[in-house]
Amino acid sequence: MDRFVLRACLRTPLIRRGSFTLDALLMAVLETGDVSHLLRCDGDLYFASSGFAVGAVATQKAAFVASMRPEHSPHWLDVLKPNTLNGDLRIGLARQREAGNILNDYSATVAEAIEWYATGHADAVVEALRPVRFIGKRRAAGYGEVERWEVEPGELDGLVGFAGEPLRPVPTERWTEGGDWIPVEAAWKAPYWDVRNRTRCYMPQEG
Amino acid sequence: MNGPAFFMRHAGYRLLPASFHSDDPVNDADMLFGLSLPLHTGNTLRLSSCWMVVTPQWVATSFKTLPEAGFRHDLSRPEAIRLALKSGGPCLLLALGKRTMAARDLFVTYDPRAARLCSEGEVKTFDATQEKTWTS
């Protein structure tokens, strides 16, 4: 396994949430929870950085309105029915007011590219990602369109940057580089959405 | 230690009836936020519409808990937050509204430079050392 830099050259602004690590991206694309055949992994910690914006010129607000309809989910009707008066399943006025137009705000980054630093099989990684045309959030709305994928040999292992800074969330007890980094609670391994995988970590300032 | 584990160890298990305790602090925290809890006024209320500052040494809150819980009610919210952040240890800052809180919304603050104020579905991160009152 070698160190490499993976670059997604962007055509449209990108909306990122969370650390946006390369292992998480590969897991999503390959629909698997284990990509250790592509990237170096020691004790559940992947040597794969967060995504860093290259040539970022601006951030912009991206707001979307979701029109929420006050309806019961069909599979709940049978559960609710025994608890209703005369089988009346209509939603009351108070609950109806909670529905309607919901505004979701995002922040989009206008950048030339997103870069990841990692240790693994570069050619296999880029081949896995080659069919991916959009990354990040709100892809169906055109955000995060990838113009092309590039890969080249790198110097960073995916955990530690040139200044000794963390390149991805790393549990503080596994961080051996020292430095005055700010510890925060973050998910450091997949599944990243699982609260149980959060712990005291050092993580990059950006992303 | 993650937010739900920290919260339950230092505050939540003092409020959650023993019959609801499980081995999973995440489930226990979600259970606690959905329960009506007895207040010292004699009423019961869900853990909502209040603030809470949790540290390993003490817990301060505006929620009218029973005296048995051992929570502090003598501090104002700014005082409690400032005291917790100045202590240098980990703490949990909660600002609860009317909506039900979830375990996933609980984040421990480990450093005042990245203080995390947890609300329902939202976590605000701010640098407390940049606040005007930090050095006073």
Report on the architecture of this protein:
- The complex is a heterodimer of chains A (207) and B (136).
- Chain A is mainly β.
- Chain A folds into 2 domains: 2-57 and 111-202; 63-104, no CATH class.
- Helix content of chain A is 12%, strand content 33%.
- Chain A has helices spanning 22-30, 77-80, 93-96, 122-129, and strands at residues 2-10, 14-15, 41-42, 45-46, 52-54, 58-68, 100-110, 113-120, 146-153, 170-171, 183-187, 198-202.
- In chain A, the strands form 4 sheets. A 4-stranded antiparallel β-sheet of chain A has the order 5-8-1-9, covered by helices on one side. Chain A has a 3-stranded antiparallel β-sheet with strand order 2-7-6, with no helix packed on it.
- Chain A is elongated, with a radius of gyration of 21 Å.
- Chain A starts with a strand and ends in a 5-residue tail after the last strand.
- In chain A, 33% of the residues are buried.
- With 136 residues, chain B is α+β, with helices and mostly antiparallel strands.
- Chain B has one domain.
- Chain B has helices at residues 3-15, 25-34, 77-86, and strands at 36-38, 44-46, 50-54, 59-61, 92-96, 115-119, 122-126.
- Chain B has a 5-stranded mixed β-sheet with strand order 4-3-5-6-7, sandwiched between helices. Chain B has a two-stranded antiparallel ribbon with strand order 1-2.
- The radius of gyration of chain B is 14 Å and the shape is globular.
- Chain B starts with a helix and ends in a 10-residue tail after the last strand.
- Chain B is 24% helix and 21% strand.
- At the A-B interface, strand 11 and strand 12 of A face loops of B.
